[in-house]
């Protein structure tokens, strides 16, 4: 009997669902907006709709799938049944496993979104070869999955991997967590938006990142930033250079601490902009990595947006 596994990448902005075969090949996907402001039940319904749409495209009944894996943006309970805290969704103690199993009719397993995406990169793209690896995901926020001695680093309370909240500049901007100068406050897409908005609002600076006829910045997608860089926009180049510098600085700190074989970069920013970003990130990192840790491969994942759903499907495959 043919095996099928469902993978879901649940984010604060979007939900991406995919159906995979036993060899971890993606058969179909569906994407929808998360809309966390509508509440927990509404988000659960949107997850189920995305799964059913992907399953219909793949020609399967989700109730007959071997299992579904969900990468959720927050801390997961030790029994992997609840999302204990997901700030971007405003969730606490959410019983996501039981609620989705009741609606889907197949087993569901939960994991932290960054660890799940790192699993996809490690197992499928890198064929499980690196014994020590750090995956960093640059998007609306910044998170990481850390593998050391072949296993994920989870920490005493399963809260390890919050590299976005390493302080890189104590006098820097205030982060969403309340601390000043976090990596996330300096180099995420949110940080880029804040810098561009400040430059436009304070100085009336013109940039291709403005919508036609607008005089203020309302949002910045990674693709819009890429197009501005390609057009030679000096403001776009400045904010991207700062992002690369702080990302390199964070990587150097992690390499000096953990000595990984590979640092894999993913997330929406990297997917759209890695040709511009990687050389500058590598230069900033290698200037600061101690000689004994410099034999590190700094790369962009080729899985792109599919890293999360691939890892989630692998999570379901391993449990099933």
- What is the name of the CATH superfamily of the largest domain? ATPase, nucleotide binding domain
User: Cα-atom Rg, whole angstroms?
Assistant: 20 Å
Structural class: alpha/beta
How many angstroms separate the termini?
15 Å
Q: Indicate the mean pLDDT.
A: 92
Name the strands of the widest sheet in spatial order.
3-2-1-4-8
Helix proportion: 25-40%
What's the order of the H and E elements? EEEHEEEEHEHEEEHHHHEHEH
Strand content: 15-25%
State the CATH architecture of the largest domain.
2-Layer Sandwich
How many beta-strand segments?
13
Pick out the low-confidence regions.
none
Number of domains: 2
Description:
The protein is of the alpha/beta class. It contains 9 helices and 13 strands. The two termini are 15 Å apart. 40% of the residues lie in helices and 21% in strands. The chain has helices at residues 40-58, 96-104, 113-125, 183-187, 189-203, 222-230, 234-258, 268-286, 307-319, and strands at residues 5-10, 14-20, 26-33, 67-72, 75-76, 83-86, 91-94, 108-112, 133-138, 142-148, 151-152, 262-266, 297-300. It folds into 2 domains: 5-119 and 306-319, Nucleotidyltransferase, domain 5 (2-Layer Sandwich); 129-301, ATPase, nucleotide binding domain (Nucleotidyltransferase, domain 5, 2-Layer Sandwich). α5 runs antiparallel to α7 (234-258) and α7 packs across α8. The chain is globular and about 60 Å long.
């Amino acid at each position: 009997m043919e095996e099928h596994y469902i993978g879901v990448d649940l984010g604060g902005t979007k939900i991406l669902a995919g159906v995979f075969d036993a060899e971890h090949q993606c058969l179909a996907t569906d994407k929808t907006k998360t809309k966390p402001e509508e509440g927990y039940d509404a988000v659960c319904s949107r997850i189920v709709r995305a799964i059913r749409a992907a399953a219909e495209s793949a020609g399967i009944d989700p109730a007959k799938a071997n299992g579904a894996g969900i990468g959720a943006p927050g801390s997961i309970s030790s029994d992997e049944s609840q999302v204990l805290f997901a700030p971007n969704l405003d969730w606490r103690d959410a019983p996501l496993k039981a609620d989705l199993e009741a609606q889907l009719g197949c087993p569901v397993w939960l994991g932290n979104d960054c660890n799940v995406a790192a699993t996809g990169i490690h197992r499928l793209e890198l064929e499980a070869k690196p014994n020590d690896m750090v995956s960093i995901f640059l998007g609306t926020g910044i998170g990481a999955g850390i593998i050391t001695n072949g296993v994920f680093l989870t920490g005493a309370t399963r809260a390890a991997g919050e590299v976005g909240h390493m302080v890189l500049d104590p006098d820097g901007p205030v982060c969403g967590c309340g601390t000043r100068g976090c990596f996330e406050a300096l180099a995420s897409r949110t940080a880029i938006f804040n810098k561009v908005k400040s430059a436009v609002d304070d100085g009336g600076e013109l940039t291709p990142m403005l919508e036609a006829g607008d005089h203020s910045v309302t949002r910045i997608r990674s693709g819009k930033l890429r197009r501005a860089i390609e057009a030679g926009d000096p403001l776009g180049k400045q904010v991207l250079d700062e992002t690369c510098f702080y990302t390199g600085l964070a990587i150097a700190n992690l390499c000096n601490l953990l000595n990984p074989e590979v640092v894999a970069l993913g997330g929406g920013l990297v997917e759209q902009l890695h040709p511009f970003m990687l050389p500058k990130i590598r230069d900033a990192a290698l200037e600061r990595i101690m000689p004994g840790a410099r034999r590190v491969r700094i790369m962009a994942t080729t899985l792109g947006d599919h890293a999360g759903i691939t890892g989630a499907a692998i999570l379901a495959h391993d449990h099933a």
